[in-house]
Design brief:
Helix content is 24%, strand content 30%. It is an alpha+beta fold. It has one domain. It has a 4-stranded mixed sheet, with helices on one face. The protein is globular and about 35 Å long.
Length: 66
């Protein structure tokens, strides 16, 4: 993956894995829910991973016009 977008509540977290190099703890907090399972929905488009649901992020990442 080159990028991760994660919706957590009303905030969106964007990680640029090429530039930022987050540690394992940061990645786990973004990708895993409170039960330790992968958060849903999780979608992959090429080298981009989108975790959680945020309509604006989906439109931007998946280039969906309204």
């Amino acid at each position: 993956m080159d990028e991760i977008y994660a919706a957590k509540g009303k905030s969106i977290i964007h990680l640029d894995l090429k530039r930022d190099k987050p540690d394992e703890t940061t990645l786990k907090s973004v990708l895993l829910g409170p039960t330790g399972n992968l958060r849903a929905p999780t979608l992959r488009l090429g080298r981009t991973l989108v975790v959680g649901f945020d309509e604006a992020t989906y439109r931007r990442v998946f280039d969906v016009s309204s």
